[in-house]
Amino acid sequence: MGISGKRIVLGVTGGVAAYKAAVLTRELQRAGARVQVVMTEAGARFVGPATFQALTGEPVFVDQWDTRIANGMAHIELSRAADAIVIAPASADFMASLAQGRAGDLLATLCLARECPLAVAPAMNRQMWENPATQRNVQQLRDDGIEVIGPDSGDQACGETGMGRMLEPDALVEAIGAWLAPKRLAGRRVLLTAGPTFEPIDPVRGITNRSSGKMGFAIARACVAAGADVTLVAGPVSLPTPWAVRRINVQTAQQMHDAVHGELDTASAAVRAHDLFIAVAAVADWRPANYRDSKIKKTDGNAVPELAFAQNPDILASVARRAHPPYCVGFAAESESLEAHGLDKLARKGIPMLVANIGHETFGLDDNELLILEHGSQTRLARAPKALLAHELVRHIAERLS
Ligand SMILES: Cc1cc2nc3c(=O)[nH]c(=O)nc-3n(C[C@H](O)[C@H](O)[C@H](O)COP(=O)(O)O)c2cc1C
């Protein structure tokens, strides 16, 4: 991830969402950052500096006339020491200041004096966000290369519902991680599948499998972090959509097949073709052949219904067979002879890379162990959290793409 080992100045300005900045501080630290908090005077009215000082173990700066820094120039020293500055929450007033290049207080001055990247997480009521002046300022910030993360829409402290809420701390950490990560897939379009499929027998019953979708969603996140434009075709899972990922929900293998090819068909003279297809979904090989429109009734006695099966389309092989296929990566969950079955699948599907889950009991778990099979080489990724493995895998794939 992009956060580990980074020194981040967290600027807290005057908005109600300042209370979330304390949780954000903790989450950034958990992701491996050293956090230095700087607040505006208005920010310090919402949450006291003592809270952040206790969380970070570092003095909190508010006043530009603070003499605790030896040369008396806190704004220079703090911005020099930072790898990145994140303003969360960023008030409408503070963004106006930034857009104009004002240096009215310590936080604004250190933003102006910075040499490191700067991101803002706006937080304000709906009308303030929609005001043309705020929209002008946000556009100016983007034009100046400042990252604008969010806002989100939903319930607001003022009782309104709409756009302007600050992203929740966990989503912010994800977005900050993506923003700071090396951009190995910059400019690339990636299509992924994840989760199980669900093959209905009748309106209330169906056949599915134990895929949780966690690995596929982690890879989608890692691709975003690497700078890719990501579309995720997801089977039925209850996982939240990763930040900046476009998600298409499907149920059956046939729907997944159609959604994938529909996406690949969008390439045109104006729309770049997909560079990479990663098939992580556990797609059902067969579906019940005769779907019943109404629930199959339980009959008296011991009679059980007979189920006949029909073959589902092979999504990965069909993508690999397209006239101009993207670089195709498949996933395999074998219960035995992993390597032999994996190599066989690699050849059968006509793809350059297959990733095998080592141990088939990883469904739903947060850890995994992977074996990357390619023609003529194998790479083992040791047991680790799926989020970490996803980043390693994406690094590996990016090398092949380049
Ligand atoms: C109770 C209260 C809540 C406020 N909430 C917000 C807010 O969520 N977002 C915002 O942009 N301004 C909000 N404001 C207004 C800012 O606090 C005000 O513009 C302040 O001058 C911002 O200063 P700063 O940008 O230096 O932090 C609020 C003001 C009050 C009194």
Question: Care to describe what's here?
Answer:
- There is one protein chain.
- The protein is of the alpha/beta class.
- The protein folds into two domains: 7-180, Flavin prenyltransferase-like (Rossmann fold, 3-Layer(aba) Sandwich), CATH 3.40.50; 189-291 and 305-401, Rossmann fold, CATH 3.40.50.
- 34% of the residues lie in helices and 23% in strands.
- The protein contains 14 helices and 19 strands.
- It has helices spanning 18-30, 41-46, 49-56, 74-81, 92-100, 106-112, 126-130, 132-143, 169-180, 214-225, 253-264, 315-320, 338-349, 386-401, and strands spanning 7-12, 34-39, 84-90, 118-122, 147-148, 152-155, 161-165, 189-194, 199-200, 206-207, 229-234, 246-249, 276-279, 286-288, 309-311, 327-332, 353-357, 367-374, 377-385.
- Helix 5 packs across helix 8, helix 9 (169-180) crosses helix 10 and helix 10 packs across helix 14 (386-401).
- The chain is elongated and about 80 Å long.
- The chain starts with 6 loop residues before the first strand and ends with a helix.
- The chain binds flavin mononucleotide.
- Flavin mononucleotide is lined by residues 13-17, 40, 42-43, 91-94, 123-124, 128.
- The site of flavin mononucleotide (FMN) has 15 residues, from helix 2 and helix 5.
